[in-house]
Amino acid sequence: MFTGLVEEKGKLLSKIPTGDGFQFEVGASLVLSDLTIGNSIAVNGCCLTVVKRTENSFFVDTIEETLNKTNLGVLKQGDLVNLERPLKADARLGGHFVLGHIDTVGRVELIKELSNSHWMKISYPEKFKHLLIFVGSISIDGVSMTVAQLEGNTFSVGIIPHTWRETIFSEKKVGDTVNLEFDVLGKYVERIMSNKVNNES
Asked: Per-residue pLDDT tens for 116-148?
């Protein structure tokens, strides 16, 4: 379980093919303080397992299923990634509940610099429209964000300077992909209501 509050930006140091997947070596500093083999870590919002570590990096494996549902496969050596360790039981909960289970990949359609923030519009597959609501929560590359505008199969978010600076949002360009995880509470509500309608019909 994560919160969508990115702790630091890591760097992809190596991307080693392993069958239909890859093993990534990610350079980091802050998250390494208590990271051990077998721990979970969110890389661009995707929950992965640490399989090896060095003094300045950790290794994670990605399989075909993960690569099909996320943008991790398009990462290149030297790319920056958002990193977050799992939520501690005694920690304050900022952001929202993020599982690290990516639902789909979105596409950056617009990035606009405003007077004191940035505005980003993202398109996504239409079949997920029912999972987004105005001012609802969504995880974008592992960052907890609030939906500021909905239009067709696009949504927009306003990004404050701190988030722009401390995450990989500042690296994004129009046409880039982002990992999207829709709010798990919304998914449960939708499932419950769907079952209720089916049982009544």
From this structure: 999 999 999 999 998 999 999 999 999 999 999
Q: Rounded to whole angstroms, how far apart are CA atoms 159 and 169?
A: 9
CA 96, 125, 41, 74 torsion-angle sign = negative
Distances from the Cα of 92 to the Cα of 88, 160, 185, angstroms: 9, 21, 19
**pTM score of the predicted model:** 0.91
Identify the three-state secondary structure at position 96. Answer: coil
Could you identify the residue written with the tokens 């509050």?
A: 5
Contact of 143 with 82, CB cutoff 8 Å: yes
Alpha-carbon distances, residue 164 vs 9, 113, 170 (angstroms): 12, 11, 5
Question: Contact 140/104 with Cβ under 8 angstroms?
Answer: no
